[in-house]
Amino acid sequence: MFTRISHVRTADAVVEQVEALILRGILRPGDRLPAERDLVTQVDVSRPILREALKTLEDRGLLVSRPGGGTYVADLIGSVFSEPLVALVARHPAAIEDYLEFRSDVEALAAGRAAERATAADRALLSRIVEAMAAALETDDHATDARLDVEFHQAIGEAAHNMILLHTLRACYRLLETGVYFSQQRLFGHPGARLALLEQHRAILARILARDAVGARQAAVAHIDFVRSALAEAARDSARDAVSSLRLDRRLAGLPTPRRSRTRQDHRPARISDPGA
Fold first, then answer.
1. pLDDT recorded at residue 110
2. What angle do CA 111, 184, 198 make, to 5 degrees?
3. CA–CA–CA angle 110, 134, 174 (5° rounding)
4. What are the residues whose beta carbons fall under 8 Å from the beta carbon of 86, sequence distance 6 or more?
5. What would the 3-class secondary structure string for 18-30 be?
6. What's the pLDDT tens digit per position in 105-155?
7. Which residues contact 5 (CB under 8 A, 6 or more apart)?
8. Other C-beta atoms lying within 10 Å of the C-beta of residue 253
9. 3-state secondary structure of 67
10. What residue ranges in 38-187 does DSSP mark as E strands?
11. For residue range 92-103, what is the model confidence (pLDDT) as tens digits?
12. Which terminus of the chain has fewer Cβ atoms in its 10 Å neighbourhood, N or C?
């Protein structure tokens, strides 16, 4: 992904290249940069210039170094929503509706842009992710399914080729991954939800592949509408289960303990052994 710096070989030129890779989503948070000896060859600069560039990027909070472990792209997403705000939202379930409303709007925008702008590589990646989703459904792999769900929507954001939209979506899905708004496992555990979600992802993909921006936006909105409905139904089912369990515990506490029925052997007189036998 790195290219040779063809003109002025300065630290600023290296910094500009790495920043562009991060901004365009090619380098993701947690990605490890090549080793110094490899990177100097790829960008074609001296080691002192490279080290100066990496130090500048670290000072800007874009890279982090781990002693003996290499240099990584910093976790930039977490700074979009402050920890106090995330904790505040988590304590108020009413924010779930606002979160889903926001996702409906922003994902519709991303899907429409992706239908208009996706490259052949973008379309190939989206198709591969949906194929992997189908395989995860076949093997009943909930954890992989949940991860691929996030990966699919992030890939749509990348295919929209809008840097602000890309990073906004990544921040949005970070909250989803950490379960701040709702548990993906609760959604996937709802009867029929996983198959329905797969079909919805296929519908979004089909509209993007067909370059149908209007259809892609509609498919994205329909997807979030289903998520909203499934979560509400799962919450109702959970509340009913809780009430039923309380009723059962209360009733059992007030009922007498069943007496053990005596078997035919219990009614037999005890056998007395014959001392003369």
1. 96
2. 50
3. 45
4. 175, 180
5. HHHHHHCCCCCCC
6. 999 999 999 999 999 999 999 999 999 999 999 988 888 888 899 899 999
7. 13, 14, 17, 43, 44, 45
8. 7
9. coil
10. 63-66, 70-73
11. 777 778 888 988
12. C
Question: Angle, to 10 degrees, between the axis of helix 95-117 and the axis of helix 213-254?
Answer: 150
DSSP letter at 136?
H
Dist CA 232 CA 45 (whole Å): 57
* Residue 8 neighbours by CB under 8 Å, 6+ apart: none
Taking a C-beta distance cutoff of 8 angstroms, is the pair 119, 162 a contact? no
Strand partners, 163: none
pTM for the full predicted model? 0.70
Query: Token pair of 39, please?
Result: 């990177």
255: Cα separation from own chain's centroid: 47
Rg (CA), the chain: 29
Q: How far apart are CA 169 and CA 108, in angstroms?
A: 12
Residues 6+ apart with CB under 8 A from 139: none
H-helix or E-strand spanning residue 71: strand 70-73
| The token pair that represents 186 in the structure block | 């609760």
3-state secondary structure 183-233: CHHHHHCCCCHHHHHHHHHHHHHHHHHCCCHHHHHHHHHHHHHHHHHHHHH
CB 216 within 8 A of CB 208: yes
Contact 131, 145 (CB under 8 A): no
Which residue type is seen at 178? T
Is residue 107 within 8 A of residue 156, CB to CB? The reply is yes
Facing residues of 172 across strands? none
Q: Strand, coil or helix: what is 32?
A: strand
Confidence of residue 267 (pLDDT cuts 50, 70, 90): low
